[in-house]
Recover the amino acids of this structure.
């Protein structure tokens, strides 16, 4: 990445902010279920994403490093919040799925989108490491069908560090995507082995 703040940095920071919005949904749910201290525990353990415009926050001498730190911050926060809520309320995963789906519904893919346009929208929201990680690889791309492979698991390490299960992340991400696609005419389908399909 360059030493100058550019569109790719702003694009990435929006993805970082969106993942933190997922964590906020989980923490709000925890409060609703009488586990309000989870927000304070999460903030105390990992800190919070700073508020404001990226150009006012970023270390311009180390843009790449600063953004990588924020990627790690929001990955850790989500993994911890989900894992701790499940430890406290073991049957809360369906409630989390519903809440995350609603977040997706409030960030919808435009109706009538092509499969590629839907993929590009999802890619503008979902955090998959840094752009240089090249996590998503397109396998098939046509007007009505797009298939991609997640070439590496960049989320698992954060869950392993706190003895969580990255499958919970996968479950919540699927709920988020399905919420985002509701009403778009595009259907999302995991094909197995980190391969996914969007079909119109």
């Amino acid at each position: 990445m360059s030493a100058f703040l550019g569109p790719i940095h702003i694009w990435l920071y929006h993805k970082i902010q969106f993942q933190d919005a997922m964590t906020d949904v989980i923490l709000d749910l925890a409060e609703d279920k009488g586990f309000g201290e989870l927000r304070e525990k999460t903030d105390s353990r990992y800190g919070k994403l700073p508020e404001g415009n990226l150009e006012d926050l970023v270390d311009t001498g180390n843009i790449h490093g600063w953004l990588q730190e924020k990627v790690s911050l929001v990955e850790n926060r989500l993994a911890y919040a989900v894992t701790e809520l499940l430890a406290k309320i073991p049957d809360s995963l369906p409630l989390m799925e519903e809440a995350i789906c609603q977040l997706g519904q409030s960030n919808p893919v435009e109706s009538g989108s092509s499969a590629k346009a839907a993929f590009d929208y999802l890619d503008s929201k979902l955090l998959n490491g840094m752009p240089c990680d090249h996590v998503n690889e397109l396998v098939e791309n046509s007007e009505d069908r797009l298939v991609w492979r997640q070439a590496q698991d960049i989320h698992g390490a954060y869950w392993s560090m706190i003895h969580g299960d990255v499958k919970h992340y996968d479950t919540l991400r699927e709920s988020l995507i399905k919420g985002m696609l509701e009403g778009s005419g595009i259907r999302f389908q995991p094909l197995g082995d980190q391969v996914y399909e969007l079909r119109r």
Remarks:
- Helices lie at 7-32, 37-46, 54-57, 63-88, 93-105, 115-125, 156-161, 166-181.
- The longest strand covers residues 136-141.
- Residues 12 and 110 are 21 Å apart (CA to CA).
- The chain has a mean pLDDT of 94.
